[in-house]
């Protein structure tokens, strides 16, 4: 297992960084490639992440031809043959996001079998909203031996009001509705940019999806879908992670190709703290003087609220800004584990259910820390850049799920950071 080693304390990030296509867009887009019964689908700007390889295996496990050209960052999918309707347990169990293949397989095959996603460190993450919506569309759902089986000769349009604007459930139901008989209205739908990206691809495939990005989706079912070409939208969470890295180190960084509109909640909070954020022709520039930043209160919410996927990284910024900041995590019930690790670096914070009070501005000391989930890994690395001395971050499998060449990109901006494998490390 690799370790990332950071020499922190005097880092000031400068220069420009290019971000990748969005992990949370490409995974549902790959699920959508199951739907077309004619033509091939080409996805461009694909990020090279372990989660993408896992989803590729899920799709290939359905007897679908898929080629991943890593040099060109493109995936070509041909789903025109007879496909299977059971997603392979060995891959689905590795990544809960695989559950979004349920809707497409069911819509195309009339039957689907997908293993129940396992637990997750950041919360229980049930899929009741996915299943309830499919039942409203006429599916018979059963759960036997850890598998979900769904059957529907032909799904029919339905009116669905989501108890919670779940991203995955919105994606599953949107895809299922594209081949249903009639019109499906999804109210209180998720509004994330990745939902919009999926709707754009589905419409390119011949679907009729309206309202993406708003709380009400109207999907009129069609007979068949065909292949299409699509550029995966830029990763707003990777972009936001580098914005925070620049802010924490009194840096001056241009995040190339970052989309202002997709990062508005984060940019509003950074500006409130005193960070200088400007929209430039080729991206977003972040300049800051850490000594002048002020503490803030942040509450995570479904888009367009502050993204939960930026919570851990933002608490790293709060940890180095002088004063008492408050982070309220309303989306997941157990997403403060990184604060326990930061305590080892000298951070004082109190956690009370969904609220963390962060006493920022203390001198942090480097220490060996362990990442507990994807975004926590990034947060610990960012903190290591500011803490005095050496920080070692292990369990990097979490990091590799969502960040491509993360330490190389930070090194190119001026961070003193290396990634060593266990053997060298010893
Ligand atoms: C997506 O997960 C993202 N993953 C997550 O990113 C992100 O944190 C999350 O959306 C929220 O923005 C991908 O897109 C692959 P949800 P998803 O369904 O779809 C509850 C990262 O770091 N819920 O919106 O699983 C659930 O328990 C990852 O990149 C139900 O109660 O998120 C949670 O509390 C982490 N019943 C809340 O909704 C359901 O049927 C948000 O879940 C579904 C969800």
**Cα-based radius of gyration, to the nearest Å:** 22 Å
Provide the CATH topology of the largest domain.
UDP-n-acetylglucosamine1-carboxyvinyl-transferase, Chain
Number of strands: 23
| Percentage beta strand | 25-35%
Helix content: 25-40%
The major sheet is characterized as: 4 strands, mixed
Between the first and last Cα atoms, what is the distance in angstroms? 11 Å
- Give me the side-by-side strand order of the main sheet: 21-22-1-23
What this model shows, in words?
This protein is of the alpha+beta class and 426 residues long. The chain has helices at 23-32, 50-60, 89-92, 102-109, 128-136, 167-177, 193-204, 236-248, 264-273, 311-320, 337-343, 374-386, 397-402, 406-412, 422-425; strands spanning 3-8, 14-18, 40-44, 65-69, 74-78, 111-115, 140-144, 147-151, 159-161, 183-187, 208-210, 216-220, 229-231, 252-256, 276-280, 283-287, 297-300, 323-329, 348-352, 355-360, 368-370, 389-394, 417-420. The chain has a 4-stranded mixed beta sheet with strand order 21-22-1-23. Helix 6 (167-177) links the parallel strand 9 and strand 10 (183-187). It starts with a strand and ends with a helix. The relative contact order is 0.15. Bound molecules: ligand EPZ. Ligand EPZ binds at residues 23-24, 27, 97, 123-130, 164, 166-169, 308-309, 331-332, 374-375, 402. Residues 23-24, 27, 97, 123-130, 164, 166-169, 308-309, 331-332, 374-375, 402 line the site of ligand EPZ.
């Amino acid at each position: 297992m690799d370790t990332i080693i950071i020499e922190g304390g005097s880092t000031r990030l400068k220069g420009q960084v290019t971000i990748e296509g969005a992990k949370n867009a490409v995974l549902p887009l790959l699920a959508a490639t199951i739907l077309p019964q004619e033509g091939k689908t080409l996805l461009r700007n694909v990020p090279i992440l372990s989660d993408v390889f896992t989803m590729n295996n899920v799709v290939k496990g359905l007897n679908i031809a898929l080629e991943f050209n890593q040099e060109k960052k493109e995936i070509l999918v041909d789903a025109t043959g007879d496909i299977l309707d059971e997603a392979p347990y060995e891959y689905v169990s590795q990544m809960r996001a695989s559950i979004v293949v349920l809707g497409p397989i069911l819509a195309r095959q009339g039957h689907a079998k997908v293993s129940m996603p396992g637990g997750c460190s950041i919360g229980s993450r049930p899929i009741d909203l996915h299943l309830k919506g499919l039942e409203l569309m006429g599916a018979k759902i059963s759960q036997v031996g850890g598998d979900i089986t769904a059957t529907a000769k032909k799904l029919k349009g339905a009116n669905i009001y989501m108890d919670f604007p779940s991203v995955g459930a919105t994606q599953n139901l949107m895809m299922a509705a594209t081949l249903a008989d009639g019109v499906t209205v999804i109210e209180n739908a998720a509004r994330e940019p990745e939902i919009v990206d999926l709707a754009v691809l589905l419409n390119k495939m011949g679907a009729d999806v309206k309202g993406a990005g708003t709380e009400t989706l109207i999907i009129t079912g069609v007979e068949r879908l065909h292949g299409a070409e699509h550029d995966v939208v830029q990763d707003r969470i990777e972009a936001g992670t580098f914005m925070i890295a620049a802010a924490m180190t009194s840096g001056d960084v241009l995040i190339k190709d970052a989309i202002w509109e997709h990062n508005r909640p984060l940019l509003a909070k950074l500006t409130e703290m005193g960070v200088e954020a400007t929209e430039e022709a080729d991206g977003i520039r972040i300049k800051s003087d850490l000594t002048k930043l002020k503490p803030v209160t942040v509450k995570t919410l479904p888009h367009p609220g502050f993204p939960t996927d930026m919570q851990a990284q933002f608490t790293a910024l709060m940890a180095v800004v002088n004063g008492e900041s408050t982070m309220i995590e309303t989306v997941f019930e157990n997403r403060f584990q990184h604060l326990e690790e930061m305590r080892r670096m000298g951070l004082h914070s109190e956690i009370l259910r969904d609220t963390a009070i962060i006493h920022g501005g203390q001198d942090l000391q480097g220490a060996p820390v362990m990442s507990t989930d994807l975004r926590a890994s990034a947060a610990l690395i960012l903190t290591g850049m500011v803490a005095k001395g050496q920080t070692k971050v292990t369990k990097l499998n979490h990091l590799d799920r969502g960040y491509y060449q993360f330490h190389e990109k930070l090194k190119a901006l001026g961070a003193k950071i290396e990634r060593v494998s266990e053997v060298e490390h010893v």
